[in-house]
């Protein structure tokens, strides 16, 4: 991630946290001891972990599982680095995690899921919970065991009540949003037929789109990720059988039609990660022509805005068939310079949260999950939306 964006995200998260200091819910980490038996390790060999807060009342038998996000590592050097920080090792993680937004236990802040069993799956494999490989050259040992971590966590949760779930929702943001697309069918297969299983991808709809110089930067990045982490065999068979390059099935746009449970796609059409890494990666802007625009959309040249709009159109085109033909699907594509809108309280459900057609994200997701209303919303192009919480251009 860009340093600048990383700093901005830290500032935003500090502001967000500061805002809810009074009644914030901290949840303890649970290490998955049985993971060792199936070789399900974090990059550095530490045990994987999750945080669970129990449901109660009418939600006592409903389960929300959320994949933590945090980018990827797709070569030995970046994975070796990652193995030494919290992104690749539970040894370096905070043991208490704040549950807010869709994970909040307060009906005022999270009207539909507050009383469910809520679980946050910690991300320590660098491959969206879907790799299965190992690197060992005698001096350096790295585990790429995301798929086994997913399996170990599910199997640990089963006897804790997941096997009796009435309703279930698999969610996640960013690399975790991608994980929720990739594991949606598998999650459904783990659970009884009678369980209502649905999936939510937040800021995980990474487009297979060329950058401003028409290089396929993201495609190349994902291809290296798939190869390094042994991901291909864990991608959906129906999808990999249908494409000439099976590795492409890591992109949600190709996988979409093969996902069986009802799916909700929550994304900004101007997602800041995609803007900074897919449309205008550093490699495509060596002279920094986009620097000011990347920090503040108001500083963008009309030509740059034009390219951003074209990216939005490309996203909507990739979603066309889902938008029109998926009767059980939900969509919330707003036009904010955002990234991850279900996890922090201010974007999920608060008086000034982002809205479309007078509905917040929490209300739209709830309408979809509980079938209260059709829930497919697509925003007008930037800058028409005045409800955004933008990560760039003033928070
Ligand atoms: C978290 O778990 C540790 C170890 O079990 C325990 O010592 C600590 O008190 C717990 N913290 C909270 C806030 O529950
Ligand atoms: C829920 O949030 C509201 C508003 O922030 C607060 O007044 C109330 O005490 C909270 N309830 C619980 C159970 O934490
Ligand atoms: C193992 O790989 C690491 C990272 O590529 C490298 O620094 C190290 O020299 C290698 N060790 C051997 C014995 O090849
Ligand atoms: C679940 O559904 C599948 C396919 O519809 C069916 O083959 C299977 O027998 C069902 N399992 C149970 C336990 O009902
Ligand atoms: C995927 O393939 C299996 C057979 O391998 C088939 O039963 C299933 O219906 C397919 N699913 C989709 C969504 O195409
Ligand atoms: C929706 O499905 C119908 C029937 O399969 C198909 O003809 C049509 O092209 C689809 N529409 C979109 C936008 O994909
Ligand atoms: C918007 O929603 C609020 C609360 O849900 C409601 O009070 C208000 O009347 C709605 N406004 C419009 C224009 O629909
Ligand atoms: C259902 O959604 C439509 C379109 O967004 C909206 O006009 C309508 O008011 C909603 N109905 C209810 C009961 O919320």
Automatic annotation (TrEMBL):
<dbReference type="Pfam" id="PF03283">
    <property type="entry name" value="PAE"/>
</dbReference>
<dbReference type="GO" id="GO:0071555">
    <property type="term" value="P:cell wall organization"/>
</dbReference>
<keyword id="KW-0732">Signal</keyword>
<keyword id="KW-0961">Cell wall biogenesis/degradation</keyword>
<keyword id="KW-0378">Hydrolase</keyword>
<dbReference type="GO" id="GO:0016787">
    <property type="term" value="F:hydrolase activity"/>
</dbReference>
<keyword id="KW-0964">Secreted</keyword>
<feature type="signal peptide">
    <location>
        <begin position="1"/>
        <end position="21"/>
    </location>
</feature>
<keyword id="KW-0134">Cell wall</keyword>
<comment type="similarity">
    <text>Belongs to the pectinacetylesterase family.</text>
</comment>
<dbReference type="InterPro" id="IPR004963">
    <property type="entry name" value="PAE/NOTUM"/>
</dbReference>
<protein>
    <recommendedName>
        <fullName>Pectin acetylesterase</fullName>
        <ecNumber>3.1.1.-</ecNumber>
    </recommendedName>
</protein>
<comment type="function">
    <text>Hydrolyzes acetyl esters in homogalacturonan regions of pectin. In type I primary cell wall, galacturonic acid residues of pectin can be acetylated at the O-2 and O-3 positions. Decreasing the degree of acetylation of pectin gels in vitro alters their physical properties.</text>
</comment>
């Amino acid at each position: 991630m860009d340093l600048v964006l990383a700093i901005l995200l830290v500032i935003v998260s500090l502001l967000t946290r500061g805002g809810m200091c009074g009644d914030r819910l901290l949840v303890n980490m649970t290490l998955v001891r049985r993971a060792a038996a199936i070789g399900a390790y974090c990059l550095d060999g530490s045990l994987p972990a999750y945080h669970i807060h129990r449901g109660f009342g009418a939600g006592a038998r409903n389960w929300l599982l959320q994949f933590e996000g945090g980018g990827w590592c797709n070569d030995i050097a970046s994975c070796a680095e990652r193995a030494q920080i919290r992104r690749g090792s539970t040894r370096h993680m905070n043991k208490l995690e704040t549950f807010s937004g869709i994970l909040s236990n307060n009906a005022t802040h999270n009207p539909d899921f507050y009383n469910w069993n809520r679980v946050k799956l910690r991300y320590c494999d660098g491959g969206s919970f879907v790799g299965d490989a190992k690197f060992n050259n005698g001096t350096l040992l790295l585990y790429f065991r995301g798929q086994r971590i997913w399996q170990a966590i599910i199997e640990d949760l089963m006897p804790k009540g997941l096997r009796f779930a009435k309703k279930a929702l698999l969610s996640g943001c960013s690399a975790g949003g991608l994980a929720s697309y990739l594991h949606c069918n598998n999650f459904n297969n783990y659970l009884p037929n009678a369980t209502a299983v649905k999936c939510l991808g937040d800021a995980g709809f990474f487009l297979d789109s060329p950058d401003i110089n028409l290089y396929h930067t993201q495609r190349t990045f994902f291809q290296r990720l798939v190869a390094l982490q042994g991901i291909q065999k864990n991608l959906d068979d129906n999808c990999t059988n249908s494409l000439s390059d099976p590795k492409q099935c890591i992109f949600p746009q190709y996988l979409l039609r093969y996902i069986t449970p009802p799916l909700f796609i929550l994304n900004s059409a101007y997602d800041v990660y995609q803007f900074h890494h897919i449309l205008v990666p550093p490699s495509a802007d060596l002279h920094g022509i986009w620097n000011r625009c990347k920090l503040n959309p108001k500083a963008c040249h009309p030509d740059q805005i034009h390219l951003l709009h074209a990216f939005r159109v490309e996203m909507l085109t990739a979603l066309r068939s889902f938008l029109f033909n998926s009767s059980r699907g939900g969509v919330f594509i707003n036009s904010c310079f955002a990234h991850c809108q279900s996890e922090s309280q201010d974007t999920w459900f608060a008086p000034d949260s982002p809205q479309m057609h007078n509905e917040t994200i929490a209300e739209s997701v709830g309408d979809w999950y509980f079938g209260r209303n059709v829930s497919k919303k697509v925003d007008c192009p930037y800058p028409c939306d005045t409800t955004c919480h933008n990560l760039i251009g003033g928070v």
